């Protein structure tokens, strides 16, 4: 059965960079091959660059983006720990759920969906939580929150609280600066602005988080102590200690995409996302469509827009898919049929993609 | 940096089938695309065939083989549950570790490494454990254990105990018959006899295991209730409920490899592994090398052989890698420098690979 050639303009996955696809299909290396270890080291270095961090514990986890969230809480939450979670969309809700499973006492700070996280309200929720968690780029609403401000406010108050940021949709799409912002724990996914197929969760963990980590986390597969011994070498062992078989094809693909990003320049890449997203948002408004996310906080890489009242949301998406091979996203939860989400991420952050989806959407809405 | 083209004859990963590589590089589909859902359904059906099961809960988990072990225990162990683990190699030891993290009272039944699991001893360990766990094909030693016998003995005693089998290195290499053997929980990895890159853990779970599962397992990412709502559809929802972004490229690759296995015929595939492994083991003995695994219990797809006393194990592996681009495996743990492990798995289960590694090894040992 031949598969369709989709143009993936939903909330992810996006179409990978050609270099990333070539990396997937390259001759496979074993996970203990010296060449692979070198490639892995390089990929981790390149990840440090896009994260804006010098954290030694920076690595791609062997699962899709959500495994980053799982690893974040699994390695830091002790039963009874207070975890303040800023909730302004689906992924904030999910953080509450995951943190609870590790026994956290979750304090949920709810925001109107479509609005950014309010630093003051988050800080007011508890004087000294173990962790404050927020989503940088809410994939469910297309909203950017100011993690820099949250980090600065937290740091001015205490050095005890760890700051956790979900960067699944932000990394390599808008500026991310883990060290400068004082973020302790962050994770992303490969299938958004990094321009790689889904399958890995880039992850970074500060030295402060490392010192306070759970030494034997409940989840063996995500035990950062054991993972570190493979990815970064075990202290005193002189080498890498096998933990689990790394997904070598996916890592080669990630490395190839990171090389491309490095070649273009990270600033140029985020500028490309900005410019293309601005054009899309302008074009949608020219068509009379109303943005969903609050003005001034709209992600360029993922645009949410209200479905006009008399339009069948699912029908439009279906026509885009079947007539144009274009995938855009529905909303989730309460927003399922009232917003669309259009992603211009990674390799798809291009003006031709913006014009294409604008044109196709205009045609479908007209007829 | 150009990467070497390795011939992967270690304990895995093995070189993927060409169809699997093409599947990885095919145009990417979104995880909610109707075409992808159809592909996923088909891949799950094909997995049922290779597992020998009608279990509705049969799916590829989004991580490498070890995540299958994690999911197995995370979804079944309640604190205090007695779990009897047959240990005859590294992966038995790992099962003890993982089960313990979920609060199991582990009863470890140790065997000499290189020997198969002794059904009588495992049964004698406890009259009514919640779970009995054993490794079908011990990757660390090259030994096959008789899961059919273990299942029959368990079933004749009780229907309360769940039987868990690690099939990472066995699936599609030697016969596996989950339903006929009475196995309740089994997992594998794609990078061995299935002939796919590492990145997925095929998993199957009996209806009896489902009824007794932990409803809210500690690990959100591996919650079979939530995963099932995406992979198989949620009862009453009329559709698939998003859980996490599935690794669509890897799943397309798995589906393509399963199609190839189906075309060749599963019996023909296991027969090919058997014949090629027999030739390798014969050839190694002709060279004067001594098998490590007990006679009558040697895996054809993964052969362990003792390193001759005056030979530097690491040096030989290094020469095979640098001079011939051939990867074979060292031993692990106490066996690190005393055995080699040679895999002829999936696409590498071919006579030309057997002769190649025999010839190259002979040359390296001679000079």
TrEMBL record, chains A, B:
Does the UniProt entry include the keyword NADP?
Answer: no
- Write down which residues bear the modification named N6-(pyridoxal phosphate)lysine: 192
Entry's EC annotation: 2.6.1.44, 2.6.1.45, 2.6.1.51
Q: Where is the Aminotransferase class V domain?
A: 30-331
| GO MF annotation list | alanine-glyoxylate transaminase activity; L-serine-glyoxylate transaminase activity; L-serine-pyruvate transaminase activity
Task: Tell me which residues bind substrate.
Answer: 341
Point out the coiled-coil segments of this chain.
Answer: none
Q: Which positions carry the signal peptide feature in this UniProt record?
A: none
Name the keywords, alphabetized: Aminotransferase, Pyridoxal phosphate, Pyruvate, Transferase
* One of the GO BP terms on file: glycine biosynthetic process, by transamination of glyoxylate
Name its co-factor(s).
pyridoxal 5'-phosphate
Which InterPro entries does the entry mention? Aminotrans_V_dom (IPR000192), Aminotrans_V_PyrdxlP_BS (IPR020578), PyrdxlP-dep_Trfase (IPR015424), PyrdxlP-dep_Trfase_major (IPR015421), PyrdxlP-dep_Trfase_small (IPR015422), SP_NH2Trfase/AEP_transaminase (IPR024169)
Q: Gene3D superfamilies recorded for this chain? A: Aspartate Aminotransferase, domain 1, Type I PLP-dependent aspartate aminotransferase-like (Major domain)
Respond yes or no to whether keyword Isomerase is given for this record. no
Record's family? Belongs to the class-V pyridoxal-phosphate-dependent aminotransferase family.
Q: What is this protein called?
A: Alanine-glyoxylate transaminase/serine-glyoxylate transaminase/serine-pyruvate transaminase
